[in-house]
Structure formats: structure tokens, C-alpha cells
Amino acid sequence: MSIDLSQLSVEELNAVIANAQQLIKAKRKTSIKQARAKIEQMAADLGITVEELLAAKVDAKAPSEKVRKKVEPRYHNPANQAETWTGRGKQPRWLASQLSSGKQLADFLI
After folding, report:
1. Which residue from 73, 78, 71 is spatially nearest to 108, judged by alpha carbons?
2. DSSP strand E in the chain: where?
């Protein structure tokens, strides 16, 4: 559906725009009313109110709340016993520098 607007004056085009904006607002309100009615009907079918439905927090990601077990360190810096590494993730600088100087990873086991 195309409407030829090229023959309209500026004032007429502005009037068309204003009428279109009013029509958009009216259609949006109608859509919202229809959606609300559907939601109210669904809530009524479940025996709850819309307020109860919106207030309820149902977390779909409940399994992601697992508690991670802390991993014990497997390697330590002989020069500073407080510096440790679990063997996961990026190697700490102290370990990388020692390995680059020729030492083996087994030398740092706890």
C-alpha cells in the first residue's frame, strides 16, 4: 500500500503526520489494553492476581548458584612461601620467570 504524498503541501503533510501520530498512540493503547486483558485472564486461570504474578521472582537460572569448591594450591614460590598457584589459569610471574630460567614445574610442587 503506497500513498502518493508528493502532491501535498507542507501544511498538509504536517497534518498527515499529526494524524498518523495520533493513530499510532491510539493503536498502541489498544494493543496494551488487549495484552493486559490476556495477562489478567491467564493470571485468573492460575488463580492469582496480576500483582502477585509481577511480584513473584522466579529465577530460571537457579542451577547457576552452585557453590564452587576452593582449589588447594599445588605450587609455591620457594623464595616466598606465601606466593602459591593452584595450577589453573595464567601462571604467576614468579613461576613464569623461574621456568624461563630453566627450572621445571615439578620443582615448585607443594
Report:
1. 78
2. 75-77, 80-85
Ranges of each domain in the chain: 10-55, 75-108
Q: Tens digit of pLDDT for each residue in 30-82?
A: 999 999 999 999 989 999 888 888 887 765 555 666 788 888 999 998 888 88
CB burial readout 35-59, b (16+ within 10 A) else e:
eeeeeeeebeeeeeeeeeeeeeeee
Q: How far apart are CA 13 and CA 3, in angstroms?
A: 12
The dihedral sign for the CA sequence 38, 43, 49, 50: negative
Residues 50 and 84 sit within 8 Å (Cβ to Cβ): no
Q: How far apart are CA 24 and CA 18, in angstroms?
A: 10
Q: Is the pTM of this model over 0.70?
A: no
CA 71 to chain centre: 28
> What are the distances in angstroms from CA 65 to CA 14, 26, 62, 68, 70?
56, 44, 6, 9, 15
Rounded to 5°, angle at Cα 103 from 101 and 109: 140
